[in-house]
């Protein structure tokens, strides 16, 4: 079933490039990356619990940057976010999108309730203020919009993926307009951010995508094996307008203009959501 509140992506393992041992690190390097990453996750949990709020806000972006480095990923950022609260909308390829966005500034992410059950990361996500959404119940949509609007009125930075699920990066899904309505209700600024990935040869790649039935552990190992992976984050101009559907289309056009992604074959260009 594929409706506005429970979108599904046709992207799966067939969207990923074939494994090439020549582009992967050796077993020792892989083991080091995984070990350091696990250590950072434990440190991150303690940091979120133990630091006072002002220190935590400064420490969180640095910690997420260290996490990328531990996995052998280089981050390139084009642009900056203005201080203060607001809605950040981004295309969704991988769990790495969340990591990259948190380097920009600490933000509360919108996430499906299933994220709570992820080992270690689920607990950490909750402690940094993740706003969980139950996409299995369409009746939850109005309440979710109200919750997001309340957070924005309180000055929070809310990060969200309006596609509602991950796509491979060379294709994208329709941006759902509900979150834009929340920002309109709160009178909050809206900023699109584009994320894309390059391989060691500098070419755009879908290799980092988190798709289909892959587990989080599978995806982490897959990413950790890659040599020379780069995540690019491009901060785009603020959105203008007063209509949620127009804002969703504007954000999607701005982001796909950077990523070069085509609209998914099962996502009609005129599709809109409640």
From TrEMBL:
It comes from the Bacteria. Pathway: Lipid metabolism. SMART domains: PlsC. Pfam families: Acyltransferase (PF01553). Keywords: Acyltransferase, Lipid biosynthesis, Lipid metabolism, Membrane, Transferase, Transmembrane, Transmembrane helix. Residues 86-198 form the Phospholipid/glycerol acyltransferase domain. The chain crosses the membrane at residues 30-51. GO terms for molecular function: acyltransferase activity. InterPro entries: Plipid/glycerol_acylTrfase. This is Lysophospholipid acyltransferase family protein. It comes from Saccharopolyspora mangrovi.
């Amino acid at each position: 079933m594929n409706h506005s509140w429970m979108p599904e992506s046709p992207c799966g393992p067939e969207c990923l490039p074939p494994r090439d041992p020549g582009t992967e690190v050796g077993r020792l390097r892989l083991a080091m990356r995984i070990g350091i990453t696990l250590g950072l996750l434990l440190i991150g949990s303690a940091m979120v619990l133990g630091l006072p709020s002002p220190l935590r806000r400064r420490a969180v972006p640095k910690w997420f940057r260290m996490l990328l480095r531990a996995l052998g990923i280089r981050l390139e950022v084009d642009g900056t976010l203005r201080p203060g609260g607001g809605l950040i909308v981004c295309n969704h390829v991988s769990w790495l999108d969340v990591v990259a966005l948190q380097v920009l500034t600490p933000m509360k992410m919108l996430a499906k309730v299933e994220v709570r059950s992820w080992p270690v990361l689920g607990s950490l996500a909750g402690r940094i203020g993740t706003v969980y959404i139950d996409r299995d119940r369409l009746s939850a949509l109005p309440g979710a919009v109200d919750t997001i609007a309340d957070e924005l009125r309180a000055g929070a930075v809310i990060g969200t993926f309006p596609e509602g699920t991950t796509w491979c990066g060379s294709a994208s899904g329709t941006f759902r307009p509900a979150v834009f309505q929340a920002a309109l209700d709160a009178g909050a600024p809206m900023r699109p951010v584009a994320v894309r990935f390059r391989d060691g040869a500098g070419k755009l790649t879908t290799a980092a995508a988190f798709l289909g039935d892959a587990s989080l552990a599978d995806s982490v190992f897959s990413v950790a094996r890659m040599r020379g992976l780069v995540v690019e984050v491009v901060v785009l101009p603020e959105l203008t307008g007063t209509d949620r559907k127009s804002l969703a289309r504007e954000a999607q056009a701005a982001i796909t203009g950077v990523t070069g992604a085509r609209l998914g074959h099962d996502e009609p260009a005129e599709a809109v959501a409640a």
